[in-house]
Design goal:
Layout: H1 27-32, E1 42-43, E2 49-50, E3 60-63, E4 66-69, H2 77-88, H3 95-111, H4 114-118, H5 123-141, H6 147-161, H7 166-178, H8 183-200, H9 209-213
Antiparallel strand pairs: 1-2, 3-4
Helix pairs in contact: 3-6, 5-6, 5-7, 6-8
C-alpha cells in the first residue's frame, strides 16, 4: 500500500523568547502585589537533586492586607520602644505599673504623634501592630475596675482606630465578643463599650472626623 508522507503536515517547533523585567515595589505595594516565582532545580555533578537554601521568611510579617518585610531592629528607636511596651501590656498585672506604661504610650503616641508619623514610611509595621498588639490589647485593658487606667487607655485606643486598619480591627473585636456564645464575654464587652463611651467625652479626639466615621 502507498505510504503517506506526513512530514509536510507536522508543524515545526518555535521557541518563544522570554523577557525578564525588573520591577521595584514600594512598601505599600508589597501588601497587595502577587507574584509567582519559578525556582530552578539544582542538581549535583552526578545529576542528583540538591536542596536549595530556603529564603529566610523571618523578615516577613503577615497581615490581613498582605505581608510586609521589615525587621524590628531597623525601625526607628521610638517605634522599637513602642513595640516593646505593646508586647508587655498583656503580661503586666500590677495596675500601677500598667498605668505608667500607658502614660509612656500616651506621651509618644498622642503628644509625639509617633504612630501617625510612621504610617508613610513604616505602614507595614503599623498595620501588623494594629492587628496583633494595639487594638485588642487596649480593648482588654478597658475595665471599669481601674478607672485611672482607662482614662489613659481610651484616648490611645481612639487615636489608633483612626490609623490604617484600626477601625476594621476594632469592629472585628467588637463583633466577635458581642456574638460570643459565652455570656460572660458578652457582659464584659458591654462593660468595655460603656467605659470607652464614658471617657470619650473627656478627650478632644471625639471631634476627629476619621474617628466619627469609624
Amino acid at each position: 500500500s502507498e505510504q503517506l508522507d506526513l512530514a509536510p503536515m507536522i508543524m515545526s517547533e518555535r521557541v518563544v523568547p522570554a523577557v525578564a523585567r525588573a520591577v521595584t515595589l514600594t512598601d505599600t505595594d508589597v501588601a497587595t502585589a502577587k507574584v509567582q516565582v519559578a525556582r530552578p532545580n539544582l542538581v549535583g555533578e552526578n545529576d542528583q537533586p540538591v536542596d536549595a537554601p530556603e529564603e529566610d521568611m523571618d523578615d516577613f510579617w503577615h497581615t490581613s492586607v498582605g505581608k510586609f518585610r521589615f525587621t524590628i531592629e531597623e525601625l526607628p528607636h521610638q517605634l522599637q520602644y513602642i513595640h516593646t511596651l505593646l508586647k508587655e501590656l498583656p503580661k503586666t498585672e500590677e495596675p500601677d505599673v500598667l498605668y505608667y506604661m500607658l502614660q509612656c504610650l500616651h506621651l509618644m503616641v498622642l503628644h509625639g504623634d509617633a504612630l501617625n508619623k510612621a504610617v508613610k514610611d513604616h505602614r507595614g509595621f503599623i498595620i501588623w501592630c494594629q492587628e496583633n498588639l494595639i487594638i485588642k490589647n487596649l480593648w482588654d485593658i478597658c475595665n471599669a475596675e481601674h478607672s485611672h487606667i482607662c482614662e489613659s487607655c481610651v484616648p490611645i485606643l481612639l487615636h489608633c482606630i483612626t490609623l490604617p486598619s484600626g477601625s476594621d480591627v476594632f469592629w472585628r473585636v467588637i463583633q466577635d465578643e458581642f456574638h460570643s456564645p459565652d455570656w460572660r464575654v458578652r457582659f464584659v464587652a458591654v462593660e468595655r463599650v460603656t467605659v470607652i463611651a464614658r471617657f470619650m467625652d473627656s478627650t478632644p479626639l471625639r471631634a476627629v472626623m476619621p474617628l466619627q466615621a469609624a
